[in-house]
Design goal:
166 residues, alpha+beta, four-stranded mixed β-sheet, two-stranded antiparallel sheet, 3 helices, 6 strands, 33% helix, 28% strand, globular
């Protein structure tokens, strides 16, 4: 009697894991070399894209089983402005002044469930008050303002239960 219950429990866990594994996100960066504001170093550019992809993946863990999110980033303007370091020619400095240097991202997205489109669109997201808001990300996180901006968009557009399906 114990064995059938164990097998049933194992089957339920396997199905739940498979459903959770099917939910996810695909992030594509369209012509990142042409983005409005990216680090000059190719290594630093790749790191920015890697961290953004990682953040989108973290958010997508909240998606219900069977839902998939496709995001295409068309343009990116990071918070602050890059200024050349005068004492070290290998590293540039990103200065945050709180003027017209807020982070902005242009993206297209499609949220699907079992092949049916739930939401889709093209939008430009920004965080104009990026220095004046509380930020839950560490001050050492180089993309803390961009992550906050993406979080706001995700909460209001993807995970909000108030939105109706398109």
């Amino acid at each position: 009697m114990l064995r059938p219950k164990r097998n049933l429990l194992a089957a339920v866990l396997l199905v739940a894991a498979a459903g959770a594994a099917s939910a996810g996100v695909t992030v594509t960066y369209e012509h990142p070399d042409n983005y409005r504001d990216m680090p000059f170093s190719p290594v630093d550019r790749e790191e920015v894209l890697r961290q953004l992809t990682e953040h989108f993946n973290k958010l997508a863990q909240e998606l219900p089983a069977g839902q998939d999110l496709r995001i295409t980033v068309e343009d990116l303007d990071l918070a602050g402005r890059i200024e050349p370091a005068r004492w070290n020619f290998n590293n540039d400095i990103r200065l945050m002044r709180g003027g017209a240097d807020w982070p902005t991202m242009k993206l297209r997205y499609t949220l699907e469930q079992n092949g049916q489109v739930l939401r889709s669109g093209e939008t430009t997201i920004s965080n104009m008050m990026y220095l004046d808001r509380l930020n839950r990300y560490s001050s050492g996180d180089p993309l803390r303002y961009e992550k906050q901006m993406v979080d706001d968009w995700y909460k209001n557009t993807i995970s909000s239960p108030k939105l109706s399906s398109k």
